[in-house]
Amino acid sequence: MRQICAAVRFNFLGFFRSSRTVIVFLLSAIVCYLLSGRVYEVVIRFDTPIQAAEPFIWTFGDSQAVLLVSLLLIFLFSDLPKLSAFTPFYLMRMTRRRWLIAQFCYVALVTALYVAFVLAVTVALCMKNSFSGDLWSETAAILGYSKTGQELHVPSTIKVMESVTPYGCMLQVGALMFGYSLTLGFLVLFGNLLSDRKYGMALSLGYSLYGFLLEPEVIGKLLGYENYQLYRIRSFVGWISPLNNAVYGMHDFGYDNLPTVAQSLLIFAGILATLALLSGRAARRYNFTFLGV
């Protein structure tokens, strides 16, 4: 464990001073600002308060928002696995398996930090009009009980407000986003281990494209389905699309043929376990190349 922790600390050296990190976090803040504008527009229009967790819940309550903010992690993880002149020092003192576990821990910690940053930015943007009580606000009632939410494409639904409190919903939305983003990071690492950082970006982009194309609305338009027929596609896609598993509104609330939040997290755990095993096999054949003195 001490060797793994040392390798993880080494991966974080210069992380916060890296231009790649600064650019990704700045872009994520801009994306949060643009996406949360829909929610803040309702607050300004009706002059109503909003619960502190609601901006994060409503902003990332649809697949497109989750996809946009998660795609930035592909650029952040594009340099995996972390290699430098000090890497041979670690490889001579630990097995490849432990070194690979350190890479997984690094990806998990960075992803958790990224999701926490997105949450903090989204909450801060509406802090002026928010309150901290664990109760749904008047703004949430307006979005859920009227057509305002549909007009502004804010995914606020009554079934969400009836099933969980705001902070509980925030934790579940964050966990789903973390699970999906973590699979992207593991996929980049696995692809780069296959052939000297050539396939990581391609695999992760293809994974994202797969989720985007499995949107119920997109498939419905291609098949010529009416809106009332989309529930059939939504029930099927909700299980096989990792991106839809990352959307809180695409889950079962007692009367839908959709996965529960716990089942979606298990699906992500299965994907991560599979990628970890494949990465372990790829790491055995990975040829480390170190240039310079």
Sequence-ordered SSE layout with sheet pairings:
Elements: H1 2-11, H2 19-35, H3 37-46, E1 50-51, H4 54-59, H5 63-76, H6 87-91, H7 96-125, E2 130-131, H8 138-145, H9 148-151, H10 158-163, H11 166-194, H12 200-213, H13 216-223, H14 230-240, H15 242-245, H16 261-284
Parallel strand pairs: 1-2
Helix pairs in contact: 1-7, 2-5, 2-7, 5-11, 5-12, 7-11, 7-16, 11-12, 11-16, 13-14
Written account of the structure:
It is a single chain. This protein has 293 residues and is mainly alpha-helical. It has one domain. The protein has helices spanning 2-11, 19-35, 37-46, 54-59, 63-76, 87-91, 96-125, 138-145, 148-151, 158-163, 166-194, 200-213, 216-223, 230-240, 242-245, 261-284; strands at 50-51, 130-131. Strands 1-2 form a two-stranded parallel sheet. The two termini are 30 Å apart. The model has no long low-confidence stretch (mean pLDDT 83).
Outline of the structure:
With 293 residues, the chain is mainly alpha-helical. The protein has helices at 2-11, 19-35, 37-46, 54-59, 63-76, 87-91, 96-125, 138-145, 148-151, 158-163, 166-194, 200-213, 216-223, 230-240, 242-245, 261-284, and strands at residues 50-51, 130-131.
Key terms for this structure?
two-stranded parallel sheet, 293 residues, mainly alpha
Average predicted local confidence, pLDDT: 83
3D shape? globular
Q: Whole-number radius of gyration?
A: 21 Å
Number of structural domains = 1
Summed up, the helix count is 16
The main pleated sheet reads as: 2 strands, parallel
Q: Report the order of strands and helices.
A: HHHEHHHHEHHHHHHHHH
Strand percent estimate? under 5%
Please give the order of strands in the largest beta sheet.
Answer: 1-2
Number of DSSP strand runs: 2
Oligomeric state, counting identical vs distinct chains: single chain
Specify the helix fraction band. 55-70%
- The secondary structure category is mainly alpha
CA-CA gap between termini: 30 Å
Q: Enumerate the spans where pLDDT stays under 50 for 5 or more consecutive residues.
A: none
